[in-house]
Amino acid sequence: MSGFVDDDWNVAAAGNQVPAAGLNATGAPMAVGHPVAAAAPNQTTLTSRLLALPLHIREAIYTEVLKVENTIKHHVHRDWEIADIMDDMANSDIPTDWVWSMSPRITTYNFDTSLLLVNRQVYLEASRVWGRQNTWVLIRLGDALLIRVMQESGCAIPIPDTWTLAGLGDTSGKMQRIAVDITVGGTANRYAAQQKMFIMSVEGVWDLVAHLVSYSITPWCIVVRYNKADIFPASYRRKLAKRVRELFEPLRIIGPNDQRRGVILITENDESNERSDRAADPSIHIPLTTCEVLKLLRDYLPPFNADVDKVDWVHEEVKMAEWSFLFTNAITKYGVSEEFGPGWRDTLCMAHARMMAIRLGLGDLEQAEYHARRTDDMLEMHEARIWWYHAVVSNMRTWGDTLSKSVTQEILDVIWCLSHSEDKQWFNLFWLNGKEDEESERKVVLTAAHKIEAARWVASVEHPGDHGERARRFSQFMAVQGQKLVAGFSPGAVDEYNLSMRALVVANRLPDSFQSFCHQHGFKYWSLVEVVDIDVKLR
Question: pTM of the entire structure?
Answer without folding.
Answer: 0.82
